[in-house]
Amino acid sequence: MRNPWAAGCVKIFDDRASGARADRAGLRAALDYVRDGDVLIVWKLDRLGRSLPDLIETVTSLATRSVGFRSLTEAIDTTTPGGRLVFHLFGALGQFERDLIQERTRAGLAAAAARGRKGGRKPVITNEKLNRARAIIASGLTVREAAARLRVGKTALYDALRR
């Protein structure tokens, strides 16, 4: 059902920006507009929230204001007991998925550390560049001038010299 009027909409709010953006004027206006007893209808779940936690927070906030929620594509309707159950199952599955990702990340980092690997970017200032920078500075140039000659950032060079 692509026709919002057929879904019972009385007022339509539209966003032309990506759903991943936090500053969606149309969504903000719709959330400000709805009142006790209203039902906020979206075409798809991703139109309401940038992430599952964001979606759950928004729908929970609507519920505390006695505002229902319907997603036409996923056929979720929180004004019914079954719709609330499905929505909460989505939330529980999303939390489970986030927990698994965190657990796998921690295990991967621990395994990498056990192999002697360290995370993060490789240092920009190698030992060779550091020795050259010290020689340039010893010849009377400033750290800023040494950084420019070595084509590295002055902040990175200052940090390397401190270590």
Tell me about this structure.
This is Putative recombinase. One of its GO terms (biological process) is DNA integration. Residues 1-116 form the Resolvase/invertase-type recombinase catalytic domain. GO terms for molecular function: DNA binding; DNA strand exchange activity. It comes from Acidiphilium multivorum (strain DSM 11245 / JCM 8867 / NBRC 100883 / AIU 301). Helix content is 52%, strand content 6%. The protein has a 3-stranded mixed sheet with strand order 1-2-3, covered by helices on one side. The protein is mainly alpha-helical and 163 residues long. It has 6 helices and 3 strands. It is elongated, with a radius of gyration of 27 Å. It has helices spanning 25-33, 52-64, 81-114, 127-138, 143-150, 154-162; strands at residues 39-42, 68-71, 76-77. The chain folds into 2 domains: 25-113, 3-Layer(aba) Sandwich (Rossmann fold); 127-162. The model has no long low-confidence stretch (mean pLDDT 86).
